[in-house]
Write a structure and sequence with these properties.
The chain is α/β, with parallel strands linked by helices and about 220 residues long. The protein has one domain: 3-Layer(aba) Sandwich (Rossmann fold), CATH 3.40.50.300. It contains nine helices and ten strands. The chain has helices spanning about 40-50, 70-80, 95-100, 105, 110-115, 120-130, 135, 145-155, 175-190; strands spanning about 5-10, 15-20, 25, 30-35, 55-60, 65, 80-85, 165, 195-200, 210-215. A hairpin with a 2-residue loop joins β5 (about 55-60) and β6. α8 (about 145-155) runs parallel beside α9 (about 175-190).
Length: about 220
Amino acid sequence: MIIEARSLSVNLGKTLMLSYPDISLSAGDRLLISGASGSGKTTLLNAVAGALPTTAGQLSLLDESFEGLSSRQLDKLRADHMGIVFQQLNLIPYLTGLQNAALPLRFSALRRSRVSDPVAEVVRLGKLLGLTESQLNQKANQLSVGQQQRVAVIRAFLGEPELILADEPTSALDPVSRDRFLDDVMALLDDKRQALLMISHDPAVASYFNQRIELG
């Protein structure tokens, strides 16, 4: 089991408590979280990432419970075993695409140990996602939105983390680009048998997933 969440609740204030369905993902599973704006999709992703404390319930990653872990221990767990594609991408504009993609290896010795040649691996993943080496060597702020999204995906997958979390990664793409992007991402998942938890408001992406949760 890669990620398991049972009876999770998150308190967002004195009067707002969000409760979530159970989650259980093994290698190769793809879970789509959808729902209306304000239903708590991103809150759930942040809780699963260990970045937001839960009020109740149990959460474990690779059979290690989050309960009792310090902030530093949660940071290490996240750095070693999770790749995250943020909605705002969070690329550093003055670094190249390649430098942005390789950043996780600075924070995780485990992921670094899985990559014999970081530059070659970024270039390899970029090619699979339709990015040339020349594009990867451009600064992030010189890339198109679609190219930036692919750099963010490379950053998430580099070093083979077991769980990929993605927050609306296709929101800025037209339907053709969206489908091409998802085809490429799913091919990476199939190659390494990782688990994916993705948030999207787009019903057209549902066919890519074997599990779906609709938040009310």
